[in-house]
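Collaborator request, handled under Task 6.
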Amino acid sequence: MPKTTTEISDHFVGIYVGAPDFEALQKAAKYPLTLDMMFGVLRAAVAGVESRCKGADARTAYLKSLDELTRAYHYYRVGEIRLGQLRIQLAHHLFRWGALPRSRQMADRYIEMLQQTLAEGESEIAH
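Structure tokens returned to the collaborator:
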């Protein structure tokens, strides 16, 4: 289970790069990697950080990150890989926003851009 913010960030990247089948990452893994397992471990890690968090703004960012992880997981499960990748990126940036206060202004702009891109992609699916 990833514990440090760096290890957790690496796990976000692992899902972004490897999901849904983790073919490239399987070679280095000591056990089979599945979508359920990878998301479960990441959710538990982010929830653990959130439970130890003292700041209200950071706690809100972690909770939003958990919400985006749920959405990303759904998109991967239904085969919408690009939307899943955008959601995992958004979840990662929300996590980093909570973990690294100095990067918040830049993260805010990136989060807005991701949300706009997601809204456009989701509206295309609806039509």
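The cover message to the collaborator said: "Residues 88 and 97 are 14 Å apart (CA to CA). The first helix runs from residue 5 to 18. Please let us know whether this matches your experimental observations."
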